[in-house]
Amino acid sequence: MKLESNVPSGPLEEKWDRHLKDIKLVSPNNKRKHKIIVVGTGLAGASAASSLAELGYEVSTFCIQDSARRAHSIAAQGGINAAKNYPNDGDSVWRLFYDTIKGGDYRSREANVYRLAQNSNSIIDQAVAQGVPFAREYSGLLDNRSFGGAQVSRTFYARGQTGQQLLLGAYQAMMREVHAGKIKNYPRHEMLDLVVVDGKARGIITRDLVDGSINRWKADAVVLCTGGYGNVFYLSTNAKNSNVTAAWRCHKRGAAFANPCMVQIHPTCIPVSGDYQSKLTLMSESLRNDGRVWVPRDPEDSRKPNDIPEEDRYYYLEEKYPSFGNLVPRDVASRNAKMVTDEGMGVGETGLAVYLDFRDAIKREGKEAIAAKYGNLFDMYQNITDDNPYEVPMRIFPAVHYTMGGLWVDYNLMSNIPGLFVAGEANFSDHGANRLGASALMQGLSDGYFIVPYTIGNYIADAELADVTTEHDAFTEAANTSSETLDKLLSVDGDKTVVEFHRELGKIMWDKVGINRSKEGLQEAIEQIRELRDDFYENVRVPGDAAYYNKYLEFAHRVADYFELAELMAIDALDRDESCGCHLREEYQTEEGEALRNDEEYSYVSAWEYGGVNGKLNTTLHKEPLDFEFVELKQRSYK
Amino acid sequence: MSEMTINLKIWRQKNAKSEGKFQDFKLNGVSEHMSFLEMLDVLNENLIKEGEEPVEFDYDCREGICGSCNLVINGRAHGPKHMTAVCQLHMRNYSDGDTIVVEPPRAKAFPIIKDLVVDRSAFDRIIESGGYVSVKTGAAPEANLIPVEKDTADQAFDYATCIGCGACVAACPNSSASLFTGAKLAHLNSLPQGKPERDKRSIAMVEQMEAEGFGDCSNYAECEAVCPVGISISAIAEMRRDYMKAAL
To answer: Does B136 contact A at CB distance below 8 Å?
Structure first.
């Protein structure tokens, strides 16, 4: 397997502009002869599809939801970063780049991250022009707020619904092209396989989720924008239907999977209440701007939170990290929450929670001002927990939120399978070992609006694409494989449900491949995943059949893929004998419990090649070394 | 923690062409902390174990923002709790022994796919007809060159929060999609960015709404009452005003 990053030479600031100058173009007349498939219609997919269609390509979009507007980008609450420096607090493209690469604990490509920071400002311009109703000041100009991991205010927001508003902007742009006949849109279609002809991505296989039919689609390039794989943990903040299947099937066809162990655990989520729990709800990180995180100093303290006086409260983030306080990056906040609960200081019925307290902010700014900033989040919290956060502190706990790992891509966002592009959370490209808040929306839209539309032309201009039809052997083989996979699951007829298996898998992952990892725990996890996977194929019960709408069949084949991915994640975490960002190996910590990197040996992207499953997952590690020419690698410190 | 027994009457229908009917279920051990959809998850787990087909219903984010879920509970879209999507409704709103009737949102323009799952693609086609600002990628001016009065921006945001769930249609005696259509028009038409296409947009979206088979608005205001994000019925007044202006 050859992994060329294809990062252009030259000074960091000039790489992308130089690349754009050198990139090959496809003339307008020829663009319409080229068909491009976009899978997934979240921020990356919808923005890529609309931009490609505007350029003149013939685009088809596929999503599993009943409408493109419902992709999970819609749930992002807090905001989107950009280096506009409107607040005049010293921000710049360089600072946004630097914060992002430092936040990612130096495990991402400099050139990619710099380009992301460069594109950030154009995204805001684009969204405003589309009518995205960002928060404004009385001057009529755009408002900003601060977010974790940064000392400037660079986050643009639309109350607590920034993802919704940005996605609707991209979705509307996409629907305009549907109306113009430039995009054919297929909702309720799930990608089951990638079709590779002569080593190039030439199409996909889908299942129509309404009538169950298996369909073949050909194209000159495929853009995968299918999000992350946090649901491998069963409980996460992801939507119930978010899954890894499209990406995993590409991996099985030869696409390298990069940094699979890099999973972000978000610090501010509503704690688990019982076994029936189906998902975890995130409370935006923006709450940490005004909320103070604490636990009682005495683990035996059973007083109500408001009865606990100041001196008996342990504001652990403020005490340990005086310069960032409650605004430390997500991985640091999550790890500390786990540390204090492990020490018995946790609160609530389960002891698996810490307080997020707005008492002082309300005293300082008034209830109205706090309601204006966080009203909908407070309502949501009260709805779920039946507690009123204006009066008693919220209880929060970390939950799986975002996956930095994903399919390996080069600087052009193309995987190692020519013609397969990967954008948004589905790729591994920009966040290294940890993503900063308000950076996911930025990356999805940067990839979709401002990178893929250019780089895909560069590929198409040069690719020698043979004429293929959907009758080609590669299509037939892939379609048959898809049907057989479904039939196999339906025919087991065991006595355990898919959800039961998924929950068990999730528990292994949370306990041993979650916030803290150890060599011993990971080895145990690998054994347990293998055993559970074997059991799955012998004892799972999938109801109904494949010829009609059948959600539990969808879950079954997604969980089947999770069983393979889970093993790869544990293998990757075991390989990485260091701690970095969200990947904390207990053996490698500083005296203060911070992640201790080993730059000498592990400054690489791990890219895994699939080799089949035979009791165990066969996989081969390839390394893309990370060279840092422009930043100096430092121990991250937020003190 | 108290556990309840809940009696369910759920609409079952194989597909758009077949006839549907209610099926009764009795579910024990329901916790007050469960969400309504988690209660249905538990029911489905039981059904699968018993060799029955589970009840199909739409859901995704379970945070009240994606708009996938849209059940009609005891005759009310999204159930009894004001400004709450059904995925955010919790069983603490019910009591031991309650009987709950669960139906899909019913409208000619929302054909049933299976059980409680309906086809809402008509909403996509309404947006497709004009629910956008025609700005191409890369053509946008610097963001702060377009100042928007704070009140105008806030009001546009209030309309823009529509999650496209279709509760407004389910609740309307006329099965009108006026609140959905009006909300998008009011969002875009009120902003300076949306002004150049205002007339064209207003006519196209209203006409598409009619073409999809949604009824007209008779000011019942049931839509506003069930809207999980509290879209004001004044959206419909704005829509009518903009449509009239454009048509004249």
So the answer is: yes
Q: Is A330 a catalytic residue?
A: yes
Beta-carbon separation of B132 and A176 below 8 A? yes
3-state DSSP of chain B: CCEEEEEEEEEECCCCCCCCEEEEEEEEEEECCCEHHHHHHHHHHHHHHCCCCCCCCCCCCCCCCCCCCCCEECCEECCCCCCCCHHHCEHHHCCCCCEEEEECCCCCCCCEEECCEECCHHHHHHHHHHCCCCCCCCCCCCHHHCCCCHHHHHHHHHHHCCCCCCHHHHHCCCCECHHHHHHHHHHHHHCHHHHHHHHHHHHHHHHHHHHCCCECCCCCCHHHHHCCCCCCCHHHHHHHHHHHHHHC
From the list A133, A171, A551, the residue facing B160 with the nearest CB is A133
pLDDT, one tens digit per residue, over A255-299 is 999 999 999 999 999 999 888 999 999 888 889 989 999 999 999
In chain B, which residue's Cα lies nearest the Cα of A187? B121
pLDDT, residue B1, reads 53
Of A139-143, A145-149, B205-209, B228-232, give the lowest mean pLDDT range. A145-149
Q: Residue B137 and residue A173: Cβ atoms within 8 Å?
A: yes
Residues 496-515 of A with CB under 8 A from B: 497, 499-500
> Choosing from A115, A154, A159, A330, which is the catalytic residue?
A330
Quote the ipTM score.
0.98
Q: Which fold has domain A473-608?
A: Methane Monooxygenase Hydroxylase; Chain G, domain 1 (1.20.58)
Tell me how close the Cα of A426 comes to any Cα of chain B, in angstroms.
18
B21 — contact with chain A (CB < 8 Å)? no
pLDDT tens per residue, range A142-185: 999 888 778 899 999 998 899 999 999 999 999 999 999 999 99
Average pLDDT of chain A is 96
Q: Which CATH number fits domain A265-400: 3.40.50.150, 3.90.700.10, 2.60.40.10, 3.40.50.720?
A: 3.90.700.10
